[in-house]
Specification:
The chain has one domain (21-111). It is built from three helices and two strands, in the order ααββα. The protein has helices at residues 2-16, 20-45, 75-111, and strands spanning 48-49, 55-56. It has a two-stranded antiparallel ribbon with strand order 1-2. A hairpin with a 5-residue loop joins strand 1 and strand 2. Helix 2 (20-45) runs antiparallel to helix 3.
Length: 120
């Protein structure tokens, strides 16, 4: 019975691990697509006419240019925004998954569970 409980602990712990690279790529793609779609949606929708008679498209989204150098509410800007958001999403998700896996490793060591060949 003790052997069965030990096996269940190993299986449960292995299921709790995250593959940091896969999670980072997925979050990066989702974040990049969000910026890309939002920018192009505003471009296709058009904007309102400002006080000087010029079209104003996405004044709030254009503030991302303060953080993403080169970003504008244009098609080329949406590609630049995709790249920046992908890199940012990848970095944050990879860090979160790595920290999570470190916490799982500490839990395994505390419980005395050996884990070889676990996903990283």
């Amino acid at each position: 019975m003790a052997h069965q409980q030990k096996l269940e602990d190993v299986v449960q712990t292995r299921l709790l691990r995250l593959n940091a690279t896969v999670q980072a790529v997925v979050v990066g793609i989702v974040a990049g697509l969000a910026i890309f779609i939002a920018t192009n949606w505003l471009i296709l929708k058009g904007g309102h006419v400002g006080p000087d008679g010029a079209r104003v498209i996405g004044p709030h989204l254009s503030l991302l240019g303060q953080f993403f150098v080169g970003y504008r509410v244009t098609f080329v800007g949406s590609l630049i925004g995709f790249a920046y958001a992908f890199i940012l999403g990848f970095t944050v998700a990879y860090g979160v998954a790595t920290i999570y896996n470190c916490c799982v490793d500490r839990k395994e060591k505390r419980l005395g569970i050996l884990s070889k060949g676990a996903a990283r």
